[in-house]
Amino acid sequence: MEPVQPADRVPADRTAGASTPPEGRPAADPGATPPDGQPPVAAADPAGGQPAPAAGGTADTGSAAGGTADPAPAAGGTADTDPDVPPATSAAAAREAARTADGRSPKDMAISLLVLLVPIALLLGFYRVFLGGDEPTTVDPAPVVTQARAANVFPVSEPVDLGSGWRTVSARYQPVDGGATLRLGYLSPDGRGVQLVQSSVDPEKLLPAELTREGQPQGTTQLGGRSWQRYTARSNEQALVLLEPNRTVIVVGAAREQELRELAGALR
């Protein structure tokens, strides 16, 4: 039979885990109430001897094993340039940045353009040199002249024995209000355009339409035994006009006056 224990004695199993304070220090009372305005005393951590955080407190964010975590870079910040990167690497990065979205460099694009242009230049040269690409298209005025003569609205003339440098580039016969008009287009030996107009339309309507209202007579000249009137016409153009009872003949263009006279004198 065990002896009777005093009433205020703490059982041995409750005091077994209590830590013994160092010499010269009073033992901490885990149940003691701190003075007003002071935080509660943290109980010792049995595992590591570190005090547990107080209720509502914030735990430290240090790294494990006593290390300290490096601060993360701020959002949107830029990384520092590494001074150890060699210039060759920077040049390669610049060339890579110069590449287009489809992965081709400006040099590749220039080569592709040359590959396309060279065949075009060769075809253009062949067209001009061997096919006469710069030569104007000529026409045969004979069918149109025959049509005008068959209509028998006015006497029809055409040039005879013109020089080889003259080329016929257009021919048209058209009935119009008040008569009909035959229009033949030529290129002079100098490559200037000249029109031969023969019409039964009233000269008072025909001349302003062909020579503009600013066209004015500048005197007469004799060609092939007939009296022609010299007229001003559109800008840098001049004209020779032959007035007859049934028709009006106009030779007008940007050619030299001598060429106009040659064409007008060849009419038969």
Task: Write up what this structure looks like.
With about 270 residues, the chain is of the alpha+beta class. The protein has a domain at about 140-265: MucB/RseB, C-terminal domain (Phosphorylase Kinase, domain 1). It is about 25% helix and about 20% strand. The protein is built from six helices and seven strands, in the order H-H-H-H-E-E-E-H-E-E-E-E-H. The protein has helices at about 10-15, 85-100, 105-130, 140-150, 205-210, 255-265; strands spanning about 165-175, 180-185, 195-200, 215-225, 225-230, 240-245, 250-255. The chain has a seven-stranded antiparallel β-sheet with strand order 1-2-3-7-6-5-4, sandwiched between helices. A hairpin with a 5-residue loop joins strand 2 (about 180-185) and strand 3. The longest helix has 24 residues, at about 105-130. The N and C termini lie far apart (about 170 Å). It comes from Micromonospora echinofusca. It holds the Pfam family DUF4245. This is DUF4245 family protein. Keywords: Membrane, Transmembrane, Transmembrane helix.
Superfamily at the CATH H level of the domain at 142-265?
MucB/RseB, C-terminal domain
Shape category:
elongated
Strands of the biggest beta sheet: in what spatial order? 1-2-3-7-6-5-4
Assigned CATH architecture of the domain at 142-265: 2-Layer Sandwich
Strand content: 15-25%
Low-confidence stretches: 15-19, 43-79
Residues in helices, as a percent range: 25-40%
Number of discrete helical segments: 6
Number of strands: 7
Oligomer designation: single chain
Give the CA-CA distance, first to last residue. 168 Å
At CATH level 3, the topology of the domain at 142-265 is Phosphorylase Kinase, domain 1
Q: Pairing-aware structural class of the strands and helices?
A: alpha+beta
